[in-house]
């Protein structure tokens, strides 16, 4: 059916970022709950975000039911409400490995779908993975996502959070449209981002700089492009989990695992699906209480 903005009551603010504010809203007639994200017209990338959300439709992506015009000329995305919020609020607590495997598996399914639609997300970070209390993990926020052209060309620019940027994305000269052999696989950046997310949830803090160090652009660039991966404390992770993270956080994008490789990785493929789902629900439930 057709939705209009005036059919909704704003209940609370769910979050805000660069693009605008996200409200929890209720549809007056049906009482159904949604998340409403206002995207300011003047914001760079506003048109791209609308284009991408119209292009994608998958159980692993936060669903956009409608794009509504506002009185001031902005756009409002009527999104499926994810009642567990985003994964950034779960950083710092205990995150059992089974629950991590479930996050990784579902995020990878989302990335595999995006790839089939030739979409690069480019802003994979805990705040952009949304969860529901029944254990679904979905990719959201297409604020700087991009559709890769048939020729494989895409925009290369410093955008997104430097903390989650892959090494090759710091090298814009090359990633733009250099020669054939120089060309960067645009999808590899999202795999890197997923690796940082998994490691961050495991370690309970941003993992690529020592605890307490300020996340300045220069410190991040050095750590990401040239630094060693942090040592995961003994006993904190299985061999499979260590291998998975190392495959995602391979600095050379040509050697980095692909989404398809990772879906077949034992950390994900050999997990007990029911137990992992339960473990994830428990983590979400504990936070929501
Ligand atoms: P921005 O592009 O401004 O970063 P996001 O789309 O990332 O905006 O949303 C900001 C925050 O709002 C998210 O981190 C999340 O906490 C909350 N949020 C966004 N979309 C939803 C949703 N569909 N359901 C529940 N919370 C959401």
UniProtKB/TrEMBL annotation:
This is Uncharacterized protein. It comes from Avena sativa (Oat).
């Amino acid at each position: 059916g057709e939705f209009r903005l005036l059919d909704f009551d704003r209940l609370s603010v769910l979050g805000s970022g660069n693009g605008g504010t996200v409200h929890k809203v209720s549809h007056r007639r049906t009482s159904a709950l949604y998340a409403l994200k206002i995207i300011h017209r003047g914001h760079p990338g506003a048109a791209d975000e609308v284009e991408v959300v119209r292009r994608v439709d998958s159980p692993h992506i936060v669903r956009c039911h409608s794009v509504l015009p506002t009185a001031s000329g902005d756009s409002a995305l009527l999104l499926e409400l994810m009642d567990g919020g985003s994964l950034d609020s779960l950083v710092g607590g205990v995150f059992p490995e089974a629950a991590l495997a479930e996050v990784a598996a579902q995020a990878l399914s989302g990335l595999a779908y995006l790839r089939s639609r030739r979409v690069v997300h480019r802003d994979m970070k805990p705040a952009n993975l949304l969860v529901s209390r029944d254990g679904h993990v979905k990719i959201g926020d297409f604020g700087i996502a991009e559709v890769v052209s048939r020729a494989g060309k895409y925009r290369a620019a410093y955008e997104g959070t430097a903390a989650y940027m892959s090494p090759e994305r710091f090298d814009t000269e090359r990633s733009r449209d250099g020669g054939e052999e120089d060309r960067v696989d645009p999808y590899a950046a999202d795999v890197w981002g997923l690796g940082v997310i998994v490691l961050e949830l495991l370690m309970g803090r941003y993992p690529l700089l020592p605890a307490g160090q300020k996340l300045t652009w220069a410190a991040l660039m050095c750590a990401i492009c040239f630094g060693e991966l942090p040592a995961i404390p003994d006993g904190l992770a299985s061999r499979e989990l260590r291998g998975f993270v190392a495959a995602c956080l391979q600095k050379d994008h040509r050697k980095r695992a692909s989404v398809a490789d990772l879906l077949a990785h034992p950390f994900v493929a050999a997990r007990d699906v029911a137990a992992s789902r339960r473990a994830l629900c428990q983590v979400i439930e504990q936070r929501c209480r």
